[in-house]
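Weekly sync, protein design subgroup
Attendees: M.S., D.O., the rotation student, P.L. (late)

Item 1: inverse folding check
M.S. brought a backbone from last month's batch and wanted to see whether the design step gives back something sensible before we order anything. D.O. pointed out we never logged the input encoding, so this time it goes straight into the notes. Structure tokens as presented (306 positions):
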């Protein structure tokens, strides 16, 4: 506490803003997990590997596409990669869902967890074999390079990190609105809770389920593209983060869309604050909170009791 009291307001604000950046990634990744579990009942342990796949897809498009095609100057820019890389991940998710994962829906949740865990190991193993464990990187566009000064707080942050927070918040808010406040979201929820009734109304339930899974993994790929310039692209970048993201989902409530967003942002801020008060606790503070929440409210802060 003495460290906190003795710290300048500018330094504290800077640390909290760094926590908000981490919280943005937690929110976006946990949102994808919450969508997939809440609407499909699938514990998608491959989410971290798909996050890594999105980062690698962007890196390949920006640095490797030209040499592969024999045109050295050919590449995609960051803005194109920000759209195309998550779409590549979503298409991969559609293939996985249609060919393998759909066969497990009627079985216990443990089977989907084991399958997605195995898929994550396969993807990480393949990319480790092809590219090694060293991190890759790509540059951000000139429009997002350089610092930005927040005069009201007296801090200076890299412009790219501010962009990450804004983009994450916009995507999370739009996703929450689409699922909770639109007719399409109502169809998605009804199709997973009572598919027979929805088929009677002429709704293509299998297509809705596939598109739901595709969008969940699209969010993972989108987060990977945003994260790559900050954390670098490596085969294990997802496995280093997925445990924390699962803890966020459990704290917020499995399947709670709003809970995933609010908890991800909140825990990012708490993690940033813990680095000021007691830095050694920052690695475990989220798991301590998870243990307390599970003892007091097993369904999570925003989850519904069974």
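Designed sequence read out in the meeting:
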């Amino acid at each position: 506490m003495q460290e906190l009291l003795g710290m300048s307001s500018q330094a504290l604000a800077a640390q909290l803003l760094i926590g908000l950046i981490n919280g943005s990634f937690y929110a976006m990744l946990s949102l994808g997990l919450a969508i997939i579990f809440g609407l499909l009942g699938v514990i998608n342990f491959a989410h971290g590997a798909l996050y890594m796949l999105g980062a690698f897809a962007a890196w390949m498009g920006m640095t490797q596409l030209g040499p592969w095609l024999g045109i050295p100057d050919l590449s995609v820019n960051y803005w194109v990669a920000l759209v195309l890389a998550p779409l590549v991940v979503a298409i991969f998710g559609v293939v996985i869902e249609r060919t393998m994962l759909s066969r497990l829906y009627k079985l216990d949740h443990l089977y989907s967890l084991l399958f997605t865990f195995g898929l994550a190991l396969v993807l990480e193993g393949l990319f480790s074999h092809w590219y090694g464990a060293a991190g890759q990187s790509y540059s951000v566009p000139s429009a997002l390079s350089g610092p930005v000064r927040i005069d009201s707080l007296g801090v200076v942050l890299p412009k790219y990190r501010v962009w990450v927070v804004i983009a994450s918040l916009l995507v999370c808010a739009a996703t929450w609105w689409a699922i909770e406040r639109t007719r399409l979201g109502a169809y998605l929820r009804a199709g997973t809770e009572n598919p027979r009734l929805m088929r009677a109304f002429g709704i293509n339930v299998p297509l809705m389920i596939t598109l739901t899974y595709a969008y969940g993994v699209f969010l993972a790929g989108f987060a990977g593209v945003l994260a790559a310039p900050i954390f670098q692209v490596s085969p294990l970048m997802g496995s280093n983060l997925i445990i924390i993201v699962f803890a966020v989902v459990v704290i917020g409530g499995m399947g709670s869309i709003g809970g995933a967003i609010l908890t991800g942002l909140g825990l990012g801020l708490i993690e940033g604050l813990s680095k000021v008060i007691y830095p050694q606790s920052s690695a475990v503070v989220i798991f301590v909170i998870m243990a307390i929440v599970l003892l007091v409210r097993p369904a999570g802060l925003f989850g519904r009791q069974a």
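Discussion: The chain has a mean pLDDT of 86. The radius of gyration is 20 Å.
Action: P.L. to compare against the previous round before Friday.
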